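Section 5.1 Outputs to date
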Amino acid sequence: MEDQEYTIDLMEVVEIISENRKPIAKITGGFIVLAILYLLIASPVYESEALLRIKQQQGLGQSLLDVATGGNVQMSQQQMSTYAEILKSRGVVVPVIEATEEEKDGKYPDYERYVASNITTSPFKNTEILQLKVKGKSPGQAQKANQLLVETFLLRMNELSRVEQTATKNFLQNRTDAAKQDLDKAETALQDYKIANKILTPSDSSKLFLDRIALAEKEAAVNRIEMGTAQAKLNAANSILGGEGRNIADNRTVQAYNTQLAKLESERISYLDKYTEKHPRMIELNDQIAELKTKIAEETRKVAALQAPSDNLVHQRLVAEKFQSEGELIVARQKAAILEEVIGQNNRDLEQLPAVEKGYIKVARDAQVANELYVMLAKRLEESKVAEVMQPNNVQVVDEPTLPERPIFPRKGRTLALAALLGLLLSSAFTVVRELMNRTIRTEDDVKNYLALPVMGAIPDEASMNRAMTKQKEIEDKEPGFMSKVRYFIWKK
């Protein structure tokens, strides 16, 4: 059997729709009625908006949130997404749920479902702006939930940033108190020794020797402070990470940098009894040490980004803090060993001096070192207190959460329009398909197409005859129009 081609006459489709306009209108009206019932039953949903600015990090800072970001690192889309994920984290969202949602059967709404359906974060391309949208059952609830979410997010970021500052401040506070007591004892001992031995002004040789050994003692004391501070930072990072992240000693590049840094520190220590800090060689060494520390910090940041347990920026910074503290401990321990040798040699030289001069240098050394150490600790303690109370400014609220004026769902006009359009399309499509699928023979063409028989004649049905006669009569009774009169006049001529 040969394939037959079937064509659909658009005029026939229009005629079918025209003949069935009443059923189509009824079906469309039914859809509109259903839409109205839905609008009466559906609960309105409101949405509050807020804008946050995630500022680009400005170099390697001392706070926990500044450790892993280099000064030339651009704020990437991944970093913006990371902040968005922190904002939607369980520790930030759960307090908001408990404060704004009602309990049902003793349970609050599920966290995962609440985040998926109620919270939306959208970073604006090529900007530092993050848009936050929160939905609620009422305008007040949406605004309150958004406000609490922003506040809880900022508090969480502050808590993470203050972990290091608090640990450092507590360590420096204890060391400052102890240094103050040591200073008081050393100054009392020096004064008593001067009175007992009737020393008014020490000799020039005693002053030079005192400066030499005091400088080494001061370096050793500072190194002990640095070692303790690094250990406090490491303990704080480990307490949060729970052992995550490999040891920095596993990285050969950082290990080589630390070894080179220890050598430079050793060379600098060997010059303490020869040059002052303003000597060209000491200035050169200090510049080399500062440059090498910058390289170590940059390499540490890269290693942390690779070894962090996730793409979470806070995790990366915690791992970087752990690695940086480990490197500082390695260098500080090597410096301690070298300084111990220098101090040992100074003590042996001190034993060669006369008894009175030797005793004076010892008590004067203790007083001088204790004074410099206390001044340094007091300054660092004040800096740590300021850093602890300061709010991190890398997250700023640009626009406070808005109070929505109208619901975003359901939208009445759009819903009614869609219901009418859907009803019209579906009813029309159903009517046309039903008519086209009807195989009843109604015209001469149907006889030719379906039966393949010649048509000898056609007897119209009574309804068709009546319609045709009525139409013809309307045409005849109708007064000729202007165009008809013009054509008649031309034809007559």
